[in-house]
Design goal:
The structure is a homodimer of 367-residue chains.
Chain A: E1 3-10, E2 14-15, E3 21-22, E4 25-32, E5 42-46, E6 72-73, E7 78-79, E8 84-88, H1 120-133, E9 139-145, H2 147-158, E10 163-169, H3 177-191, H4 212-225, H5 228-234, H6 253-268, H7 271-282, H8 293-298, E11 303-309, H9 317-329, E12 334-339, H10 347-350, H11 356-364
Parallel strand pairs in A: 5-8, 5-9, 6-7, 9-10, 10-11, 11-12
Antiparallel strand pairs in A: 1-4, 2-3, 4-8
Helix pairs in contact in A: 1-2, 3-4, 3-7, 4-6
Chain lengths: 367, 367
C-alpha cells in the first residue's frame, strides 16, 4: 500500500471557537488508496490524543506501522483498493500541523503559551478546509475512536451534509469530570515540572530524556486506557525478576510497563501540544453552541454507527448508549454495537479483530 | 468524648518481613472510652494510606474531627460508652510512629531511603506489640477500610486467636496491578521531583508549599477514591466562574477540587512516608507466607464481616466477594454486605450513614 504524506498550507484565517484566529496554519495529512473519478470513495479517519496522520502503512525502515494499520489497507476492513482514505493531524498537535511550537507569524518564535486554545470543533473546521482544498465536498464515512470519535460526531453535527455515515468508537458526547480528572494529572505534572519552564523550554531540551511531567501524566493516561481485568491478565502481581519485593523502588511488571511506555512517549510528544490537545478533550461538548444536546443531535443527517467497548473505563458504554437512545427516539438512522471486551479504552486500538468486520459491513452498506 | 493521645516506645527489635529490623521504634496511638476491668471491650481501628491514629473526636481548636468521627463516639455505632477504642499510627507513617524521617538510632539523622520497607504484616505486628504493652491480648473487633481493612484481614490470618471478629471495608486480599498503577503515578511524580532530592530534602522544605510531586501523585489517588458517577454529581462539567472556558489553564470544578485537596495534602504529609506506605499497599498479599490464599484464609477464627461498596473503583466488590465465597465454602463464620453507593472508594469515609447501623449490629452480635 502506498502512503502519501503531505502538508497543506492555509493563508486564510481559521476562526476559532474562542473568537481567536489561527493564521496562517498548516495541516499535515496522509492518504492511502486512490481517489475515484467522482470523488465518491473518500473515508476520513480522525486520530486520538496521542495519534497522528500516520494511521496506516509503514515508513521505510520503521518497525511499527501506523496506529490503525490493522484496519486500513488492502483487503482490510477499510480496504484501500476501494476507498481513498485520508487522515490528517489535528491543529495543536506536534506532528506537522500548526501547534504551540510552530512559529507565530510573522516572527520565527514559537507560540508556546500564546497559542490559542483549540477545540474539537476547531479541529473539525480545519479538516473541512483541508478537504475543500483537495476538492472533496462529501465523504462516505468519518471514522475515529476516543478524540477521533468526538471529531466524527462534531463533523456530523456541524456539517450535516458532509458525511454519509460516521463511525465513532469508544467516545462520548461531552467529556465527563472523570476524564477531566485524569487529564488533570498530566496538566499539573507538566506545568509543575521545573524543566517545563512555563512553556519556555528549549526546542531540544527533552530529546534524550523527555519531560518527566509528561511521562508522569501519561501514567495516569495509561491507567484510564486499560482496565483492572486487562491489567490482571497482562501483568498480574508479577515482579520484574531483577527487583526485590522489599526494595522500595522494586518494580511490579505493571510498573515497568508504565515506565517504559511513558518515557518513550515523553521523548516523542511535545508537552505543550499535550496540554492543548487535552484541553480540547476537556472542552468537548457536542451541545455547545446548539442550546441542547437534543438540538445538536437533531441536526445529524449521516447514519451514526456507534461502537462502544464493555470494559472501557474512560468513556463508558453508557455514554454512547445515551446517544443511541436519543437517535432512536428521534427516528434518526443509527446503529449501536457494544463490543464485549475487558481490555479497556485501548480496545479500539488493539482489539481490532473484534470490530473490523462491523466496520466493513457498515461501509459496504453505503455502496 | 475524651481523647487520649500517647506514644509507646519500644526498645526491643521489630523483625520485619523483609528480614530487616526496626529498632527502636515508636507507635503513636489514641484511645477513646474506658477499658473495662476484664479488658473485654476493646475495639481496634486501623487507618488507611493518608490516615493517622486520630480517628475520632476533636482536638482543641480544630475545625475538623478525626477521620472516622461519624462512626466512633458516644451513642455512635462504635459507642465509646461501651467500648474502649484504640487506633494507632502505622509504622512508616509521619504522624508520630517511626517512619523514614525518624532518626536512625544511634544517630540523629533521619533514615530517609535507608528506612526498611514495611509491609501490612509488619504494621500489624507492631500493633500487636503495642496492645501487649497495654496488657491487651484479645479484642472484640478490628475494623478498618482500604489499607485498614488489609490490616484487619492480616490480623485475623496471622493471629487467629486475637480478635473475636474483624470488619474489613472497601479492601482486598491482594493488591491488583490496577491499584499498583495508580500508586505508580505518585511514586514517579515524587521521585522525579527535583525538590525531592532523592529523599534528601530538608525537613522544612515543603512546609509552606508542599512537594509538587506528592500533590500530582495525589490527584491520581483522588481519582481512584471517587467514581465517574460521584464526579458527575459533585462537579458536573461546571466551570470555576473566574476562569474562562478558552483559557488554557482555565479550570473545571473537578480540577479545582483536585488542586485544593492535593496541595493541602502535600503540606501535611511527608513524601517519603507516602512512598513507604504505598509500597506496603502494593506488596499486600494475604497469601504470602502461607502457600495459598486458601491456607491463609483457613487460619482465620474470627468472624469476618466484609463490607464492600458497589461504586468502589479501587477495590472492586468482586474482590471481597471472592473472599466471601472462600469463607462460605470453608464453613467459616462470615457475613458479606455490599453497600449500594456510587460514591466510589471514599464511601467508607464519607457515606457512614449507609453502613454504621451494620457495624453496630455486628458489634452487638458479639456481646
Amino acid at each position: 500500500m502506498d502512503i502519501t504524506t503531505k502538508t497543506a498550507h492555509f493563508t486564510s484565517p481559521l476562526y476559532l471557537e474562542s473568537g481567536r484566529i489561527l493564521e496562517p496554519y498548516d495541516i499535515a495529512y496522509e492518504t492511502y488508496g486512490t481517489l475515484n473519478e467522482d470523488k465518491s470513495n473518500v473515508i476520513l479517519i480522525c486520530h486520538a490524543l496521542s495519534g497522528s496522520h500516520h494511521a496506516a502503512g509503514r515508513y521505510e525502515g520503521d518497525r511499527k506501522p501506523g496506529w490503525w494499520d490493522g484496519l486500513i489497507g488492502e483487503g482490510k476492513a477499510i480496504d484501500t483498493r476501494k476507498y481513498f482514505v485520508i487522515c490528517s493531524n489535528v491543529v495543536g498537535s506536534c506532528f506537522g500541523s500548526t501547534g504551540p511550537m510552530s512559529p507565530q507569524y510573522p516572527s520565527n518564535e514559537p507560540y508556546r503559551l500564546k497559542f490559542p486554545v483549540v477545540t474539537v470543533k476547531d479541529m473539525v473546521k480545519a479538516q473541512m478546509n483541508l478537504l475543500s482544498k483537495l476538492g472533496i465536498y462529501r465523504v462516505k464515512s468519518i471514522i475515529g475512536g476516543s478524540m477521533g470519535g468526538m471529531q466524527a460526531l462534531q463533523f456530523a453535527v456541524d456539517y450535516p451534509n458532509f458525511a454519509q455515515s460516521i463511525i465513532p468508537l469508544a467516545t462520548t458526547y461531552a467529556t465527563r469530570p472523570w476524564v477531566i480528572a485524569f487529564n488533570k494529572v498530566a496538566i499539573e505534572a507538566i506545568r509543575r515540572d521545573p524543566r517545563f519552564k512555563n512553556g519556555n523550554y528549549g526546542k531540544d531540551d527533552f530529546k534524550e530524556h523527555g519531560l518527566d511531567g509528561l511521562a508522569v501524566g501519561r501514567i495516569a493516561g495509561h491507567i484510564s486506557y486499560l482496565s483492572p481485568d486487562s491489567m490482571d491478565k497482562k501483568f498480574g502481581r508479577n515482579y520484574v525478576p531483577t527487583d526485590g519485593l522489599f526494595e522500595l523502588f522494586g518494580r511490579y511488571e505493571v510498573e515497568r510497563y508504565m515506565e517504559y511506555n511513558t518515557s518513550n512517549f515523553s521523548k516523542i510528544f511535545d508537552p505543550l501540544s499535550y496540554l492543548y490537545i487535552v484541553k480540547a478533550i476537556n472542552t468537548f461538548n457536542l451541545s455547545r453552541g446548539y442550546g441542547s444536546l437534543y438540538e445538536a443531535i437533531s441536526r445529524i443527517k449521516a447514519k451514526v454507527n456507534l461502537i462502544s467497548f464493555s470494559g472501557d473505563m474512560l468513556f463508558f458504554p453508557q455514554e454512547m448508549e445515551h446517544l443511541a437512545k436519543m437517535l432512536k427516539r428521534n427516528n434518526q438512522a443509527y446503529s449501536y454495537s457494544k463490543i464485549d471486551s475487558d481490555y479497556g479504552h485501548d480496545a479500539f486500538l488493539v482489539e481490532i479483530d473484534k470490530f473490523d468486520f462491523l466496520i466493513k459491513e457498515m461501509l459496504e452498506e453505503l455502496e
